[in-house]
Structures are given as C-alpha cells and as structure tokens.
UniProtKB/TrEMBL annotation, chain A:
<feature type="domain" description="Intradiol ring-cleavage dioxygenases">
    <location>
        <begin position="29"/>
        <end position="97"/>
    </location>
</feature>
<dbReference type="GO" id="GO:0008199">
    <property type="term" value="F:ferric iron binding"/>
</dbReference>
<keyword id="KW-0560">Oxidoreductase</keyword>
<dbReference type="Pfam" id="PF00775">
    <property type="entry name" value="Dioxygenase_C"/>
</dbReference>
<dbReference type="InterPro" id="IPR000627">
    <property type="entry name" value="Intradiol_dOase_C"/>
</dbReference>
<dbReference type="InterPro" id="IPR050770">
    <property type="entry name" value="Intradiol_RC_Dioxygenase"/>
</dbReference>
<comment type="similarity">
    <text>Belongs to the intradiol ring-cleavage dioxygenase family.</text>
</comment>
<dbReference type="InterPro" id="IPR015889">
    <property type="entry name" value="Intradiol_dOase_core"/>
</dbReference>
<protein>
    <submittedName>
        <fullName>Protocatechuate 3,4-dioxygenase subunit alpha</fullName>
    </submittedName>
</protein>
TrEMBL record, chain B:
<feature type="domain" description="Intradiol ring-cleavage dioxygenases">
    <location>
        <begin position="67"/>
        <end position="95"/>
    </location>
</feature>
<dbReference type="InterPro" id="IPR012785">
    <property type="entry name" value="Protocat_dOase_b"/>
</dbReference>
<dbReference type="Pfam" id="PF00775">
    <property type="entry name" value="Dioxygenase_C"/>
</dbReference>
<dbReference type="InterPro" id="IPR000627">
    <property type="entry name" value="Intradiol_dOase_C"/>
</dbReference>
<protein>
    <submittedName>
        <fullName>Protocatechuate 3,4-dioxygenase subunit beta</fullName>
    </submittedName>
</protein>
<dbReference type="GO" id="GO:0019619">
    <property type="term" value="P:3,4-dihydroxybenzoate catabolic process"/>
</dbReference>
<keyword id="KW-0560">Oxidoreductase</keyword>
<dbReference type="Pfam" id="PF12391">
    <property type="entry name" value="PCDO_beta_N"/>
</dbReference>
<dbReference type="InterPro" id="IPR050770">
    <property type="entry name" value="Intradiol_RC_Dioxygenase"/>
</dbReference>
Amino acid sequence: MTTPSQTVGPFFGYALPYERGWELVPEDHAGAITVTGRVLDGAGEPVPDALLELWLGETGTRGALDRRGPGVSGFGRCPTAPDGGYRFRTARPATPYLALLVFARGLLRPVLTRVYLEDVPDPLLDSLEPALRATLVARAEGIGTYRFDVRLQGEGETAFLEF
Amino acid sequence: MTHPPYLSPAYRSTLLRAPSRPPLLLKADPDTIELTSPVFGHHEVAEHEADLTRQHSGEPLGERITVSGRILDAAGRPVRNTLVEIWQTNAAGRYAHPVDRHPAPLDPNFTGAGRCLTDDDGRYRFVTIKPGAYPWRNHHNAWRPAHIHFSVFGTAFTQRLVTQMYFPGDPLFPFDPIFQSVPDPAARERLIAAFDIDATEPEWALGYRFDVTLGRTPMEDS
Ligand SMILES: [Fe+2]
C-alpha cells in the first residue's frame, strides 16, 4: 500500500539543497551545457520556493551528491531564487531529453516533465499538439545555453507526465 | 486514490500552483530514463548524518526519539541503499530556516536535517527529537500537526516520494488541510508513525516506526 505524497512545504531550504547541487559537471567540462529558466504559477508570477531535480538517466562517474573532482553526475538539485529562476550545468544527455521533477509549497505531489534540447521526432513529442509540444522543447540561447520555463498552471502550462 | 489531488482548495497554496490538466499518461519502454534513479554511494553520506542530536556542541532540547522503519517497493521488497532525507522543526515548533517567522525559540543545538542510506533490508534509522506543532497562515488559527518531512528516492525516478510523517493521536489532524488532502482515510493512516515499545530504548529514547512504500514502477509486473 503506497505511502501518500505530501507537499515539500516552504522550509526545505536548509535541508535538501546541497553545495553545488546544480553543477552536474565542473565548469571546465568539455561540451557542458546550461539549462536555465523560471518556475511560474497560474498568475504568471515567479515561484520562489520550488525545488527542481534533474536526472540524466545514469549516475555517472562523479556520484549523485559529490561535487568534487572531474567527471559527470547524472543528478542535480536546484532551489529556485526569489525571481523563480533555476539553473543546471550538465553534460549533454545520451537521450534527446532530460527528466525534470519540480517540488514546491502548494504542490501536494511533484510534477514530472521532460526538457527536450531539440525539437526532434520523438514518440512523446509527436503525440502532442503543437502548443503542448512547444512547452517541452527548450529554447537555445547562444552557445550551450538552453532556456526552459516551467509553467505550473494556466497559459502555456507545461505538459506534465506520469507513467 | 492514494495521493492527494493537485488541487485541494482548503490548502490555499494549491489554487495557483495545481496544474489544470491531468498529467499525460506515458507508456514506458526499457530505455525510458524515468525508470532509473540515481545511485547514492556510501562515501557520499556519513553515518553521523542520521543523528540529528549530535550536530552541535550541546544536546538539543526536547523529547529524544528514534524514527526507524523500512523503505519498500510496491511488491513489499526492500529498497536497498536508497537515500532517505528528513527535516523538521525543533521541539518548540520552529524551523532553522530564515523564512520561518513563528515566534518560538530557535535551539542553537538543533538544525533539524538528516540523511542516511537504507541497509540491505531497506532499513533506515534516525535519532532526533520530537518536533513541535506550528502555526501557518493558511486560514484563521491554522496549525500544522507535528511532523517530520521525508524525502525518499527508490529505484526509479517515477517512484520519487516526498511526504510527511505524523505522530499518533495528534488532535490537529481534523483541522489540517495538508493531512486531509489525502482523500482516502486508510491512506492517511499510512502517514502516521506507530509508537513501538520494542524500538524504545530504556532510559534514553522513545521509538517510532514508519515504513514507506513507494509506488509501482511501470515495467514492474503487478
Ligand atoms: Fe513542515
């Protein structure tokens, strides 16, 4: 019998984030990319107390929590800033997408989505009408930077997933 | 239904944050990365991180307790070497978080955050103090029942669970829209730890048991 989910609440900030949790690869890692954006609520206002977790599908050589030394971690965690902003520095994933979980006060369970780095033929993307499809595709901004906003509710609401 | 719905109007923060569309149901295939999960190494988590009463020079005030249990998958099998993180208020109901404005004292000897990895039996164990109830601004005279926040990974990203563990017999249960957001009363009961005299250590600490069962993963045969 599954244990029910409860909200992460507003007070996780001193417990769950860890040092350089957003850096899945060191700064000098060849081919590193940055995924950045904002989390917005149904009124289009920033969500300043969300926690994002990024998963690439493999733990990597760097470990999941350890940020010392070279190599790649497959897992990152980033709390949003007062403007709702977050960022991850990561290696390019083997898949066309990265998995993203968002927790927040007011979310009684997390929302799960995917960050596609390119709009490519893909079973999930191809099943969506264009407006919804667009919510899953990050926007390339200069070299190696991808913008991906999470809209929890309302206009441009992100496509959330379950399995 | 086990999990609370996203929109639970009595908990006001859900009004602008609950997605308006149900999540898209995706068919998983063996390459789906959401069916895997980060693996946490023992070198990444130190043993003393499971004892929240030894993080400062002195001992925290409050009722010393142990909280232990097992992390299980939907088939009841232990989830081994998985990361369990907890956070909570001090005995007075105050979080060591700058955003917490509750006029209750901070305890210089208590931060209230801990983590550990489960053993080969899926077992975890924390030493801490009993957290306090605290007020919040959701509605007039709103108080959260005492709880410990839990974060658990499991073997698939789809199993990832953040929840709250409550204490038996709390008089605030009927008034708490977060606890009450779980529609099924039987499922709600699964959020309440059990007092366990056998886990209680004489002359030292009361023992509470709290087992966590993670959701089914899509590739699991039911
Ligand atoms: Fe709390």
